Amino acid sequence: MICQEEPALFDLNQNLVAEKLFYDKRNPQTQLDLIAAIRQQMTNIISQLLAEQFQRGGVHDLEGRLTVLSILERITRHIPHHVEFLHQKRMAILGE
Fold this sequence. Notes:
About 55% of the residues lie in helices and about 10% in strands.
């Protein structure tokens, strides 16, 4: 959306993604490190955007038009879910 004009955005079956991409076999610490690295990289990108670029958008197949800002807000609210899941998985592996 930052690089293209109104790209098509598609809904994903999260359970199927988790299964096909082997979420259950991934190392929790590696996943937490990846989340941290992606957040840092996105912070570098986002900090360069002009205010009007946050209104750039794409068209989601189920939800209609979404903006860069609306997707950033969603991701910001959703990431803690993944972090908590990974924390629980790590605790189970360590037997704590």
